[in-house]
C-alpha cells in the first residue's frame, strides 16, 4: 500500500501546515471547485484518449496503490534449474516440466525452444510480446500524465471564473476577501490533484512497467542461453548481469581486516 501511504502523507502534511498557519481544513471544502477540477479533467481525458481507455481508471488506481513484488529471484532459480536439466538430459527433457511454469512468458519461450524454433525466431517473438506489453502499459501511464497536465490548467480556469464572478459583484466589499479566497481554491485543487494524485500514479505505473520489462529481458536472455546449451554457471552469470548489480554490503572494520589477512587462492 505504498501508493496510498504516500498520498496520505502528502494530504496530512498539507493539512498540518494549514493548521499551523492558523487556517482551517474545512475552508477547502468547495463542491463547485471539486466538480470543476475533477469533472473537467475526466472529460478532457476521455476526449484525448477514449472512453474504453478511461474505464481502466479504477483498475489502474488499484494497481498503483499495491506494491509490486519482484519475481526476479524465483525466475532466476527456475531458469537455472531448467538450464541444468537441459545440459544434463537435453532440451526435450524439459517438456514434462514446462506446463508447471506459472509465468506464461517463460512458459511460451521454453515451449518454442523445445519445439525447435530458431533462436532468432524465439527472440523476435518474445521481444514483440514485451513491446506489446509496454505499449499496453504506456496507455495507462500516458493517461495519468495527461490528467496531471489538464488538472492545473482547469484550476487556473476555475480561479479566473471565480474572479470574474467576484468582480462583477462589488456591491458588498465586506465579503470581497472571502470570495477571492474561494476563487483561488480551484487552483489549489487543480495543482494539488496533479501533484498528489495523477503525476505520482503515472510515475508509479511506469516504475512497475520497467520492473516487469526487466524481468522479461532477464528471462529472454536465460531462455536463449538454455537453447544454446550454455553451461548453467554461464546462465546464472547472464541472469545476474541482467538483474543488475547487487547492493554493496558494508563490512565492519574488524571483518574487513580479517578478510584481508586471508591470502587469495592461486
Low-confidence stretches: 246-266
What summary fits the major beta sheet? none
Silhouette? elongated
| Order of SSEs | HHHHHHHHHHH
How large is the radius of gyration?
28 Å
Question: What's the number of helices?
Answer: 11
| Backbone structural class | mainly alpha
Assembly status: single chain
Mean pLDDT: 84
Number of beta-strand segments: 0
Q: Helical amount among residues, as a percent range? A: over 70%
End-to-end CA span: 50 Å
Strand content: under 5%
What's the layout of helices and strands?
Layout lengths: L1 H19 L10 H18 L2 H4 L2 H9 L6 H18 L5 H4 L5 H11 L4 H49 L8 H52 L4 H12 L9 H9 L5
Outline the structure in words.
By secondary structure, the chain is mostly helical. The protein has a domain at about 1-10 and about 30-70 and about 125-245. The protein is about 75% helix and about 0% strand. The chain has eleven helices and no strands. It has helices at about 1-20, 30-50, 50-55, 55-65, 70-90, 95-100, 105-115, 120-165, 175-225, 230-245, 255-260. Helix 1 runs antiparallel to helix 9 and helix 5 runs antiparallel to helix 10. It starts with a helix and ends in a 5-residue tail after the last helix. Residues about 245-265 have low confidence and may be disordered.
Amino acid at each position: 500500500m505504498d501508493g496510498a501511504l504516500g498520498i496520505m502523507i502528502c494530504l496530512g502534511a498539507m493539512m498540518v501546515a494549514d493548521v499551523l498557519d492558523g487556517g482551517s481544513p474545512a475552508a477547502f471544502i468547495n463542491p463547485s471547485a471539486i466538480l470543476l477540477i475533477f469533472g473537467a479533467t475526466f472529460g478532457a481525458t476521455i476526449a484525448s484518449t477514449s472512453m474504453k481507455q478511461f474505464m481502466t481508471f479504477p483498475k489502474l488506481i488499484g494497481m498503483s496503490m499495491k506494491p509490486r513484488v519482484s519475481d526476479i529471484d524465483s525466475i532466476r532459480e527456475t531458469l537455472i534449474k531448467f538450464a541444468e536439466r537441459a545440459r544434463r538430459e537435453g532440451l526435450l527433457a524439459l517438456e514434462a516440466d514446462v506446463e508447471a511454469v506459472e509465468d506464461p512468458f517463460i512458459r511460451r519461450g521454453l515451449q518454442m525452444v523445445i519445439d525447435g524454433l530458431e533462436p532468432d525466431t524465439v527472440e523476435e517473438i518474445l521481444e514483440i510480446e514485451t513491446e506489446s506489453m509496454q505499449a499496453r502499459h504506456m496507455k495507462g501511464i500516458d493517461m495519468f500524465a495527461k490528467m496531471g497536465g489538464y488538472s492545473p490548467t482547469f484550476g487556473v480556469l476555475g480561479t479566473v471564473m471565480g474572479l470574474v464572478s467576484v468582480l462583477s459583484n462589488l456591491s458588498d466589499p465586506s465579503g470581497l476577501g472571502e470570495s477571492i479566497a474561494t476563487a483561488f481554491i480551484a487552483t489549489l485543487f487543480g495543482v494539488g490533484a496533479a501533484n498528489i494524485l495523477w503525476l505520482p500514479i503515472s510515475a508509479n505505473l511506469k516504475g512497475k512497467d520497467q520492473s516487469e520489462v526487466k524481468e522479461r529481458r532477464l528471462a529472454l536472455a536465460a531462455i536463449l542461453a538454455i537453447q544454446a546449451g550454455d553451461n548453467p554457471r554461464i546462465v546464472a552469470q547472464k541472469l545476474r548481469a541482467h538483474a543488475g548489480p547487487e547492493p554493496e554490503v558494508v563490512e565492519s572494520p574488524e571483518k574487513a581486516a580479517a578478510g584481508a589477512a586471508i591470502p587469495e587462492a592461486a
